[in-house]
Design a protein that fits this description.
Layout lengths: L5 E5 L6 H12 L3 E3 H10 L3 H12 L5 H12 L8 E4 L5 H11 L6 E6 L2 H9 L1 E4 L5 E3 L17 E2 L6 H15 L1 H8 L3 E5 L4 H24 L4
Parallel strand pairs: 1-3, 1-4, 2-3, 4-8
Antiparallel strand pairs: 5-6, 5-7
Helix pairs in contact: 1-9, 2-3, 4-5
Bound molecules: adenosine-5'-diphosphate.
Length: about 230
């Protein structure tokens, strides 16, 4: 079974995960699955799950694992995720990573990409980050939409995210270090990790990520040819 397009992207808030995950997903014709987007959609639709998630999100806390695993499991079993996916925002801790292995079964993940960006750079980026309140497209103070904070893609209002307050950002970065960063060593030990420099022009970052995935796919193809898979 070819699992090489089962991808996870890890990185601090503001590392550019959302943008890069979208590009990777398009390149490999697989869906980008963002748990943050799933929760924001639930909040917007005012579902029970959305109402429960909202208070955690606004405070920069993680939504409890129990509320994350079911929707992720359901999304991963959809038809469009069978040839691969790019997971963005999940897993966020070792318990979620363990649960993901169980959900995926044979072969597990193809590759986990760690987007490496220094904290001072992400803090600068987060302060200027803006998103479309309708479709989630990313903008920034330096790269605004072409007209008056109206989304170029869908015409929605481009705003600051509710959880991009100073206190919530600080809390999320702290939680990233404590809960999510340990996954780097966890996946490294499983030979599933590629660290990629996330600084510089977004197009350069995309090229680096695509190269990392391609070399993993190449290695899998070679192994298969040698009859080792
Ligand atoms: P960021 O990476 O900037 O924190 P996300 O869009 O990934 O933003 O997530 C926004 C919020 O959604 C998180 O702060 C958290 O409250 C919740 N969330 C998203 N993914 C998860 C997850 N895998 N586990 C727990 N909470 C999550």
């Amino acid at each position: 079974m070819d699992v090489s397009r089962r991808l996870v992207i890890l990185g601090k808030q503001g590392a550019g995960k959302g943008t890069q995950a979208e590009r990777l997903a398009q390149h490999h014709a697989v869906p980008r699955i963002s748990t943050g987007d799933m929760f924001r959609a639930a909040v917007k639709a005012d579902t029970e799950a959305g109402r429960r998630a909202r208070s955690y999100m606004d405070d920069g806390e993680l939504v409890p694992d129990a509320a994350v695993l079911d929707p992720v499991g359901e999304r991963l079993s959809a038809a469009d995720a069978q040839d691969g996916f790019v997971l963005d925002g999940f897993p966020r801790n070792v318990r979620q990573a363990d649960a993901l292995e169980d959900l995926l079964g044979e072969g597990g993940l193809g590759l986990v990409l760690e987007l490496v960006v220094p904290t001072d750079v992400v803090l600068r980026r987060l302060a200027g980050r803006r998103v479309c309140s309708n479709c989630g497209a990313n903008y920034s103070v330096e790269h605004p939409p072409s007209s008056d904070w109206t989304c170029d893609r869908c015409g929605g209002d481009v705003v600051e995210r509710d959880d991009d307050t100073k206190a919530a950002i600080k809390r999320r970065l702290w939680l990233y270090e404590r809960e999510t960063e340990p996954l780097v060593a966890w996946y490294l030990a499983k030979d599933k990790l590629a660290a990629v420099d996330g600084t510089g022009h977004p197009d350069s970052v995309t090229s680096r990520l695509l190269r990392a995935v391609d070399s993993r796919i190449g290695a899998a193809v070679a192994r298969q040819a040698r009859g080792q898979d």
